[in-house]
TrEMBL record:
It comes from the Bacteria. PANTHER family: GNAT-FAMILY ACETYLTRANSFERASE, SPERMIDINE N(1)-ACETYLTRANSFERASE. It comes from Maribacter aurantiacus. Residues 9-174 form the N-acetyltransferase domain. Keywords: Transferase. Pfam families: Acetyltransf_3. This is GNAT family N-acetyltransferase. GO terms for molecular function: acyltransferase activity, transferring groups other than amino-acyl groups.
Length: 174
């Protein structure tokens, strides 16, 4: 099995202690644009989500992991979604909660670990990412990790009165 431990971070399953992090991220309007959220989540709804977070990826078609420092401080989330074992693919998304933890290699290492896990443990052939045009940090990260631009979804996301293009990136494992 692939280790979910890196040099600067590790990935772990969601725990009930992650309620505050989940509440902060799911209720952050700056993340809503990319997550498709239109209203805040209550703590009660998020508690129910955490109670069911143990369910198998083959059942719920999603896996959400917590990005932690080596001291086990939760600093972000990384997801596999639209898990499709028949066609051996899944979508991927990542969010780092605090600006101070960005541009320090955290996202790169988390994505490298997840890509290895998806390829070796889940036997996936490919991952894809939907990135808003203009999200330069994400574009840099995914290009750096070998994801290739395969398409543009024109006027795909409507937010704050304007339409934005969403770019589709894909990484095929050899």
């Amino acid at each position: 099995m692939v280790s979910l431990q890196g040099n600067i971070i590790k990935l772990r399953a969601l725990e009930t202690a992650d309620l505050d992090l989940l509440f902060e991220l799911e209720n952050n309007p700056s993340v809503w644009e990319i997550s498709g959220t239109m209203a805040p989540y209550s703590r009660d709804v998020l508690k129910l989500y955490l109670e069911n977070a143990h369910r198998d990826i083959y059942d719920v078609k999603q896996l959400r992991l917590v990005i932690c420092t080596q001291d086990n401080e939760a600093i972000g989330l990384i997801d596999l979604f639209d898990f499709d074992p028949k066609n051996r693919r899944a979508g991927v998304g990542i969010v780092i909660s605090d600006e101070g933890n960005r541009n320090r290699g955290v996202g790169t290492e988390a994505m490298e670990i997840l890509c290895k896990y998806a390829s070796k443990t889940l036997n996936l052939r490919q991952l894809y990412a939907n990135i808003l045009e203009g999200n330069d940090r994400s574009l840099y990260l995914f290009k750096k990790l070998g994801f290739e631009l395969v398409g543009t979804k024109r006027d795909w996301i409507f937010n704050e009165g304007i339409f934005k293009n969403e770019l589709l990136f894909q990484k095929i494992f050899k």
